Amino acid sequence: MLAATQPLTPTLESARRVLKQYYGYDQFRPMQQDIIQSILSGQDTVVLMPTGGGKSVCFQVPAMVQEGVCVVVSPLIALMKDQVEALKANGISAACINSSIGQAEQSSIGRACQAGMLKLLYVSPEKLLSEGFLSFLHRLKVSMFAIDEAHCISSWGHDFRPEYTQLRVLREQFPEVPIIALTATADRLTQRDIQQQLRLTEPKVFLSSFDRPNLSLSVRPGQDRVNSVVNFLKTHENEAGIVYCLSRKQCETLAGKLKEKGIRAGFYHAGMTDRSRSDVQEQFLRDDLQVICATVAFGMGIDKSNVRWVLHYNLPKNIEGYYQEIGRAGRDGAPAEAVLFYSYADVAQLRDMITKDADPRLAQLNSTKLERMQQFAEAASCRRRILLAYFGEVLEKDCGNCDICRNPPSTFDGTELAQKALSAVARTREAAPLSVICDVLLGRRNQGVISRGYDQIKTFGAGADLSFLDWQSYLHQLLNDGLLYIAYEQGYALKLTDLGWQVLKGERKQALKQFQVPQKAEKAPKGRAAKAATGQRLPSIADELFDRLRQLRKQIADEQGVPPYVVFSDATLQEMAIERPRTRTAMLAVSGVGMKKFETYGERFIDLITQHAGAPSPDDVPDVPSDEDDTPAPAKKRSPGTPSGTALDSWKMHRQGLSVEQVAEQRGLAVSTIKSHLEALYERGYQLRTEEFISQDDYARIKTAVQELGPDFRLRDLFDHLREQYDYFQLRVALTYDKRLRGELPNQPPVE
Ligand code: ADP
Ligand code: ZN
């Protein structure tokens, strides 16, 4: 393949060229660039980045520009297969070796490695540590080891893999080869374990923000869940998603109910045969199933980037798990939703399960974690801040993309109360757990307090005017807001963060909220709120062209036997739907369209976009004169999906004075569809009542913006430049108006 034939000097510049040529991306994300620089300098590197943050690029691109093969250790066969498929689709030579690969194929992969034909070799930890494999590696030039899902090394974590702890042999046997460890888990203990166990030498650690701004968060009461799910799906047609359930039975029942409603749903849990599990997974990956009802057994090996939503049918056991599960939505960066159904019954059930654990230490750890999960569900402050605070990250502002931000409860200046609590934490020398701090504030002289002399400190009894529940709630808020954290490994002691010290010293104010349980389901946001809800950063993907691009993607994916998101991500299709590239250059400028993909199927997407823009086709022209004629036109053969005739129908209704919304209503079509009809005809010379969409002032403003942007701007840039004042339809109309003025587009419909 292309990769092996082009040795490149490993510089950031060559890395950037690889990114463009193979991945179709113009730029590294900020942290990717620093990470790649570190790797290229031969340093051990630890990368902590959320799911969807772009970890793969961090080692794949350096692997491409360095001599030799990069050995990637990955814990799951499905995940490896997926990554290798995605690499190949981009024209990069990669392979995987694990227990599912036959001997003959393994030998041929081995030969390819020796011949320097492979840039990336994925192996399971078992395979890596197996007889003879390390000596095989000694015969190769290994550029680096990339340890994916590195948190599996930590026995504190939720995905502990004993084999991972033996990976230290890599450092012992290959002292010269740099190691890069990557994970989407960021807690302190895991991070420490990774560095120690892999024997990393002064690694550079990159802790990226764990924020996923494209993911909208909300919690709904857990009543009438089936109907809630059904209603949710009505507004998410054709969008793939996962419903996480607590029990196997529930997965099956829910999937059954959804199927009765005509939804393409399946279920997945650990009680199924391997065969049926992989079948279901495969159907989901290929967009043949829209919904998977699953236990937490589902997902770790899933690279599907076009999961648009994740529902939690039940409360998860802890925030780590929750964050990982919701992280499976929107990996491509396009807007996605996470909805959690919450009821006390779930808490009780989970607590029951947890306290049954034979190991009392573990039972206590897990029940503390469950409490934090419960606090999240009951929270009265920005949910994203809570999540990020849990992972030690402080978000300066509320997010605007969670249910609390959209529907905020009232707050009061809680600085003084916060200071009392923080001071109690400081004066107990940050050694007491939450319940003891409450006792200290309340002035309770019980064993835990007296034995440690806490009844002697200044804050003892400073909060006796409030109840235990009040203090508990305020302490939870301080934890959630990142003023305190829990040191699990030190008897659950509460400790102050920098932010906590600032509030304690009076350098910062702290707002507090009265505890509230969410009572009723949030109303679906409309208009302005809906815009905020889907994240200002990205436009809506409800668009006729987008749907057609998605259909073409599915068709190509089936022909090639790969999942649709391997062909192009939703984010890439979305950009195509906005920019509508009709030339090779324009298509290659779309983020996510690299050389190989362009060569393989770029033309087909260009054809579709051209067809979409070029309505009507000659076949349909007789429709115009037969305007007054009531006899139905004979059925004509059209190229599939050509909007032509139907576009003309919309246009005629528009000419008769109907608004876009009225046309949509009468025709039973989406407003976005009508708009795309009108745009297409306007470009072809048909007249529109443009003043209805943009005024002369608007036009002048848009034109100025165009001049400010200079040549070769993308529509998306124009949209951003104008601070999202105009939608894409208005921008397109203005641009076409301009081109018509300048004679670049016709002012008359074609005479055919
Ligand atoms: P992770 O492994 O951290 O979960 P991925 O490597 O799968 O994340 O990347 C998430 C998505 O972001 C993928 O669709 C990927 O192609 C895309 N991506 C990665 N780097 C960039 C970049 N520099 N520009 C645009 N998209 C990127
Ligand atoms: Zn928020």
UniProtKB/TrEMBL annotation:
Listed Pfam families: DEAD (PF00270), Helicase_C (PF00271), HRDC (PF00570), HTH_40 (PF14493), RecQ_Zn_bind (PF16124), RQC (PF09382)
User: Keywords, A to Z?
Assistant: ATP-binding, DNA damage, DNA recombination, DNA repair, DNA-binding, Helicase, Hydrolase, Isomerase, Metal-binding, Nucleotide-binding, Zinc
Q: Which part of the chain is the Helicase C-terminal domain?
A: 225-373
Nucleus as UniProt keyword: no
Names of required cofactors: Zn(2+); Mg(2+)
**Catalytic activity, as annotated:** Couples ATP hydrolysis with the unwinding of duplex DNA by translocating in the 3'-5' direction
Q: Which GO terms describe its cellular component?
A: bacterial nucleoid; cytoplasm; replisome
**Residue span, HRDC domain:** 539-619
| Taxonomic superkingdom | Bacteria
An MF annotation (GO) of this entry: DNA binding
Enzyme Commission (EC) number? 5.6.2.4
State whether keyword Transit peptide applies: no
Instruction: Map out region (Disordered) in residue numbers.
Output: 612-649
Question: What PROSITE patterns is this protein classified in?
Answer: HELICASE_ATP_BIND_1, HELICASE_CTER, HRDC
**Which InterPro entries does this chain map to?**
DEAD/DEAH_box_helicase_dom (IPR011545), DNA_helicase_ATP-dep_RecQ (IPR004589), DNA_helicase_ATP-dep_RecQ_bac (IPR006293), Helicase_ATP-bd (IPR014001), Helicase_C-like (IPR001650), Helicase_HTH (IPR029491), HRDC-like_sf (IPR010997), HRDC_dom (IPR002121)
Q: Where is the composition biased (Acidic residues)?
A: 620-631
As for family, the record states: Belongs to the helicase family. RecQ subfamily.
The name this protein goes by in its record: DNA helicase RecQ
Q: What is the gene called?
A: recQ
